[in-house]
Amino acid sequence: MMPVLPGEGRVPYTPLPRKIPAYTGRIVVPREEGILEKHESGSFLKLLCKETTGDDTFTLGERTYAPGTRASVVDGGPSEAIHILEGTGILRAWLSGDARRRPTEIPLSPGLEVIVTQNLRHSIEVHGEVPVVGVVTICHADYPAYPHHYPAIFEPGKGNTLHMHDNRIEGFYIVSGPGSIAIADPDNTRVRDFVVPPRGAAYKPMYVYHRQYNHEPNGEPCYWIHSMVVYTHRGSRMPQLHVRQHGADGKTPIWERPGN
After folding, report:
1. Could you give the C-alpha distances from 192 to 27, 44, 177, 179, 243, in angstroms and in order?
2. Angle at 150 between CA 105 and CA 189, to 5 degrees
3. Average pLDDT of span 108-131
């Protein structure tokens, strides 16, 4: 069977099987308990990963590209979603089928999200004397699975309602402000609340009820980035390179829905 590649074909939606138990690892990982990996071009602080959550399908962390460096070109790597928090630079991607045989160049600045799809050759170059820092979600599963982010703000005392998913695994990364998560136990019989410290992350597995919210009714807004790895037919229609620019501060309003 020929594999489904980004931008090609359509894959019927099929829910993934339940894990029993639904999860066994950690739910909240503060940054000081993350796993720091040093690289020639900078570092990667892994927060949600196989070592901390027991889930080997995705990794969520904070990546730093040092000033004056150029990250190694990746060819044949996994899908990645990168949300820039600090610094400026340029991403170059060599798209398949491009007759120019020259890379597409994407300027990087705070608030920009780039999804680099599986097996796409690319590199990142840092401009100036300030590191480029971004929240990165890596999808270790093949297409039609893919990662993406959306940033949002929870105003004091606000949040969403308990819900669950059968087609996605999620992370909840707090950039700043008071953020919490309520999550059921693996049997979905009892709900617990956890505070997620700034620059830390919370894990939300499939088939488990959860909600996220600002636990301070009179405090400051919670600025957070919602990380997802989605298993659906939409992944087969993703372009090789997807770019979305948010505000200069990276923030967008909360998604208002009835009942929230």
Report:
1. 11, 30, 20, 14, 36
2. 145
3. 89
- Whether 251 is covered by a domain: the verdict is no
CA-nearest of 163, 231, 204 to 16 is: 231
Phi, psi of 234 (to 5 degrees): -60, -30
213 or 1: which leads in pLDDT? 213
Number of domains in the chain: 1
- Strand-strand pairing, 168-176 and 179-184: unpaired
* Domain, as residue range, for 168: 28-245
* 250 part of a folded domain: no
> Which pLDDT value is given to residue 259?
41
Ramachandran angles phi, psi of 249, nearest 5°: -90, 0
What CA–CA distance (Å, rounded) separates 85 from 71? 17
Q: Is residue 82 part of a domain?
A: yes
The structure's pTM equals 0.90
**Is 235 a residue whose pLDDT tops 80?**
no
